[in-house]
Design brief:
Oligomer: homodimer
Strand order of the largest sheet of chain A: 2-1-3-4-5-11
Strand content of chain A: 15-25%
Structural class of chain A: alpha/beta
Order of helices and strands of chain A: HHHHEHEHEHEEHEHEHEHEHEHEE
Shape of chain A: elongated
Largest sheet of chain A: 6 strands, parallel
Number of helices of chain A: 13
Chain lengths: 340, 340
DNA sequence: ACGAAAAACTGGCACGTGCTAGTCTTGAGG
DNA sequence: CCTCAAGACTAGCACGTGCCAGTTTTTCGT
């Protein structure tokens, strides 16, 4: 084990040039003869040298880094992070990740990102109070992904929950459904828009709303609970629109155990198009918020605010699309009583 | 938007003390009166100051950070990352994440981590060639998680694939199964140990091996392919041991579509106990490699090598456990012909 | 009330790099 | 052979912080 990591100086002495020249070479700047450049990189590779990002950004007074807050436990975060990397890289920025875990809350993670002197931060589904976000946004460009926020707090990218749910309802109506229920998860940041989307769409089709509110957690248990309550009623709706994939999963599972078939007896839609929905096992019709599109929009907003100091926060609304899979189909011939 | 981030000096001037005293306060060191300490933190909060990690680790010549290479697309990486945070934090270290994406290969990600002057790196299922790993391990402590490596390359934490598969086989034998097939995925780093585990366990029970090798990808498609090939044979095994959860999922799905029931007609086991396996929808009996245990072992190995410069690479083998769920049960009464 | 020790606080240098402002070398035009 | 410009290279300061070695103030025992 080598006790000390090599520095630019070590490379320079080895080649027999000044430290500055090594610097020029590593920054790909002109003024270094190609033969020297080659020798420098060779020596660097032999010594195992790589530039110290800390010292570099310290001197530059700009890190070229965008901080990203994400929750690995959240099913759609991975896709977004992946897309963020691509989008940031295209625009010449790097990413530094701040993960949310059981031992690290949002405040800790954000403080750490600030410590790295990231030039802006992108927060994926943040739960930080609005006034704190506002305060943070005074210090550096902040972009929130997926959370509806009051105008002007910070830049925000989100998908149109109202339109997404409406697309699901439209799809079901087109298939011939008329008794379409909605499973509402109040703990979801987007819950209001999605709920609104359901009510408005049903209204537009002249159909009565049938809403079932379920517990706060994202687990399938809550979806199963909704299934129970439908089973306890005289008539099972022919279709159920769920406000998230996990609830849809739980609901379907419970329905299957009760001897109902999906989609023959009941059609079900989810929201998020998470990996779970895509499993062939599940094959869930779901509303997709394109991660690439959201990420690109987020990075664009961040870059815009970083380059133009006094540009105002932007709001970008992404139009979600319905991915039709095997969990939706034509309604059962007549609205029969519950078969149990 | 403020043009410049505040520094220690700004806080100091505001409070009317020296910069050094602010430093003492932020490092929680003695020698600062509690009243002054309070005023310092208040001023810092007003200015939105947080210490510059870059400058700090530059001066300290040690970053207190452990680099973690992970692939967000890999199903079990999230759990491990989460557990790594906890384990590292307990021992006074922080983590900096290097994600693997479509636009960033392992070499890029590792180089970046080195740039941050992490004191060691933990690589989750790395695919870097052995000689490069060896070279890297000469520069700083390296811990690999989940990949079998030749002795002495770097510290390694992995679970005993042989024992894991053996546990699955034993469980099935105990249930009464005798015709137990194995689905082998050669692309898996652990494939040899797991395969060995199957053969040895079957041998021990005096049962003949029945192995089916499937395509390289981790997708369910490959598992479905294995199901196809079993269906094409005169006798369907009463149980199938799969070398990963995804293959098991695909297999089950294909079997169900062919009208077979799981576990009534065929029992199936997976490997990894990934989130998918835990879904109530799937309820897959699977071999679990405890993320917390693996993470703790990895951090311990890293810490050990960081504090004792010339300690040799360690190897830690974690004993996996079988999580019994609903996809395994007693074998069908007699080994009937394929029912199609 | 005095001295000494402890507590509270400060000065200055160093960490590894980027940038500005140079100096030295090379080669071409006259 | 001289001049001059372009290319190749270097000197020195600055970035924000930690640590060592001080200096000033407070506390306490006698």
């Amino acid at each position: 084990m080598i006790s000390k990591r090599p520095t630019m100086m070590d490379v320079a002495t080895r080649v027999g040039v000044s430290r500055q020249l090594v610097g020029l070479a590593f920054r790909n700047e002109a003024g270094v003869s190609s033969s020297t450049r080659e020798r420098i990189f060779e020596a660097a590779s032999e010594l195992g040298y790589s530039p110290d990002i800390a010292a570099r950004s310290l001197r530059r007074r700009s890190s070229n880094y965008i901080g990203v807050l994400f929750n690995p436990a959240h099913s759609s975060a991975d896709d977004i992070v992946e897309a963020l990397y691509a989008a940031a890289h295209e625009r010449g920025y790097n990413l530094i990740l701040g993960a949310l875990t059981a031992t690290r809350d949002e405040r800790d993670a954000i403080t750490e990102l600030l410590g790295f002197r990231t030039e802006s931060v992108i927060l994926i589904s943040p739960e930080t109070p609005v006034n704190e976000l506002r305060k943070l946004a005074k210090r550096l460009p902040v972009v929130s992904i997926g959370r509806p926020l009051p105008q002007g707090v910070c830049s925000a990218v989100r998908s149109d929950g109202q339109r997404g749910i409406a697309a699901a309802v439209d799809h079901l109506v087109e298939l011939g459904h008329r008794d379409i229920a909605y499973v509402l998860t109040r703990s979801l940041p987007e819950f209001a828009a999605r709920h609104q989307g359901y009510v408005t769409a049903m209204d537009r089709h002249g159909l009565p709303s049938r809403v079932r509110e379920i517990g706060g957690d994202f687990t399938e248990e809550s979806g199963a609970g909704a299934a129970e309550s439908f089973l306890a009623e005289p008539v099972m709706p022919t279709a159920v629109v769920c406000s998230n994939d996990h609830a849809a999963m739980g609901l379907i599972n419970r329905l299957l155990r009760a001897g109902l078939r999906v989609p023959e007896d009941v059609s079900v839609t989810g929201y998020d198009d998470s990996r779970i929905a895509r499993l062939s096992f599940v094959d869930l019709t779901s509303v997709r918020q394109d991660p690439a599109e959201m990420s690109t929009a987020a990075v664009e907003a961040a870059v815009q605010m970083m380059s133009d100091q006094d540009s105002t926060p932007q709001e970008r609304m992404i139009v979600p699309t319905l991915v039709i899979r095997g969990s939706t189909g034509q309604p059962r011939s007549e609205a029969q009583l519950h078969p149990r």
